[in-house]
Write a structure and sequence with these properties.
alpha/beta; about 280 residues; about 45% helix; 3-stranded antiparallel β-sheet
């Protein structure tokens, strides 16, 4: 095996999901690039690179069997689109060059491939996945449905991750200090109406322990309006559902219309209310 990163007699290869991405680009060139002319993507969704000992050892023995995806910076250097762990492990293995596939793609495609590559290769943390989705939404106006199709997961999964991504920094810090990493628990925190309620729930988890409660609305059920319960679950035609609330004094009625029956659950109702609250609060 040479210091160039490729084992003797072995050509560069790539997997099917990469081939599909290459086919969409205007240019893809396979080449060997000096390792010191390559740098990581500053928008890389993965924060924790993990232990590279095993990968570095494998590269020492067999070379880099799967090329890095890189984009030329235009000044004789390249930025990694996918393959940062391989690049770092190759550095540890004292390689001077690594096999790469150079892509001429836009910033949106770079962000998309970087996230997909990480999701397919090694599980991201809950925070990394959530922030990766949020970046696609905020920077490139992806819809939850579009992200779901790109990564092969349900739209509900994406929406849940986005709820976690929206947690305030003070809540993130508290979760990390309490080593709270379970997605189900983080979702329950995110579903609290405001930051104070989130802190209260986290304090309760820390002092008394916490058991996640099921609180899904049954789509086909109806609740009668009473003086103590003004919430009504309305079943409309087809797959469309409406959540309705009338104030105790009948001063106002609030309705939230869901286009898909699967969306008609408590967590989505609360998330919708929070989004409206945040939107109005910004304009006040």
């Amino acid at each position: 095996m040479s210091k160039r990163g490729l084992p003797l007699g072995v050509k560069m290869r790539h997997d099917s999901h990469y081939v599909e991405e290459f086919a969409r680009t205007t240019r893809s060139v396979g080449r060997v690039i000096p390792i010191n002319q390559i740098s990581p993507n500053p928008e890389q969704p993965r924060v924790d690179i993990g232990d590279l000992t095993e990968l570095s050892s494998s590269i020492k023995q067999n070379g880099v069997l799967e090329p890095l995806l890189v984009k030329p910076n235009g000044n004789g250097t390249w930025m990694i689109i996918a393959g940062e762990r391989r690049w770092r492990a190759a550095n540890l293995a004292s390689l001077t060059e690594v096999p790469c596939i150079e892509l001429d793609i836009d910033e949106k495609s770079i962000a998309e491939i970087a996230l997909i590559e990480n999701l397919q290769r090694k599980d991201l943390t809950v925070w990394e996945e959530a922030d990766g989705f949020a970046y696609l939404v905020e920077r490139f106006n992806y819809t939850h449905e579009e992200i779901a199709k790109k990564i092969g997961k349900s739209r509900t999964t994406v929406t849940e991750s986005m709820a976690i991504a929206g947690l305030p920094e003070s809540i993130r810090v508290k979760c990390r200090q309490s080593t709270i990493t379970a997605k189900s628990t983080l979702l329950e925190v995110a579903r609290q109406f405001d930051e104070k309620a989130m802190h209260d729930l986290l304090d309760n988890i820390g002092t008394k322990g916490y058991k996640r409660q099921k609180n899904s609305i049954q789509p086909k059920s109806k609740a009668k309006l009473t003086k103590n319960n003004q919430i009504e679950q309305v079943v409309t035609g087809g797959n469309k559902k409406t959540f309705k609330y009338t104030s105790p004094d009948n001063d106002f009625t609030l309705e939230i219309f869901f286009h898909k029956a699967d969306d008609f659950v408590n967590s989505n109702v609360l998330q919708a209310l929070k989004e409206v609250y945040a939107k109005i609060n910004k304009t006040v």
